[in-house]
Amino acid sequence: MSLRVVIVTRIPPVLAGFDAIVQELGHETVALLTNRVILGLRRPADAMGQLVFDAREELDVLLPARRSTIAPLLASVSPDLVVCMGFPWKIPPDALAVPRLGWLNGHPSLLPRHRGPIPVAWAIRNGDDEIGITFHRMDADFDTGPIFSQRRYPLGELQAPETFYAEFGQVIGEALAEALGRIAAGEEGAAQSSGGSYESFFGEDDVWLDLSRPAAEVHRLTWAWRYGMAPNTTPGALLELDGTPVRALETSLTEVDGARRLECGDAPLWLVATEELSEEEASSSSAPAASTH
Known about the structure:
By secondary structure, the chain is an alpha/beta fold. The chain is built from eight helices and eleven strands. The strands form two sheets. The chain has a seven-stranded mixed beta sheet with strand order 3-2-1-4-5-6-7. It has a four-stranded antiparallel beta sheet with strand order 8-9-11-10.
């Protein structure tokens, strides 16, 4: 049975990868649904244009200005199924009810662990050894619906998001193909196990690195910010270096040639890469703790 599928995302590689898998399985991608919300992610300014113009010409592009218009826009293309990943809005009940097979969401964690908007960031911050991908049916709550597929993936040595997600993408694709097969076969998915945790965005208390904390904790928070976001505050991880606030991008718990040594609460940490703050960020940033000189 061929399904009419709408892909919902703000991430160009997700659209391209999901569209390819949908077609390979004999289904039809009929539209992309996205929005203009950025939520503090440090992405190129033209990411929206890339997403839309890289989409196949055959795809309708649905661009709701508000949650209340998702349902009528979806209904206009008569989908059997919506496949979603990397979309910042909670979907209202009337929109969830439009496709006869519901919404399938890709969540990059081993649900029920790390529910919420930035699961990879929290896995890194908590020192997890592995992350994963779960495809589950969306319901009225956050990341709680029945599971159709799940794959584990080692976090390994911390690396830049663009490298990590490129490697992780193959595992995500395999899990999506399995989930689509089960949905097409009429399966309802497996209920999530009890427990789990919901973790929101990072907050103001997380923005500045506190070098009085253990080195491993500072290291994990630095890398977590590469995968996290803070909608209502300046993104971290910030550090005052020689009197100037900078954003730490990469640290190491072992010595790296050319890196700057920082003294943390229990051990040294090496600052490998930083970036300057924008004028707006610099003017609104004030270090709450001791500076590093």
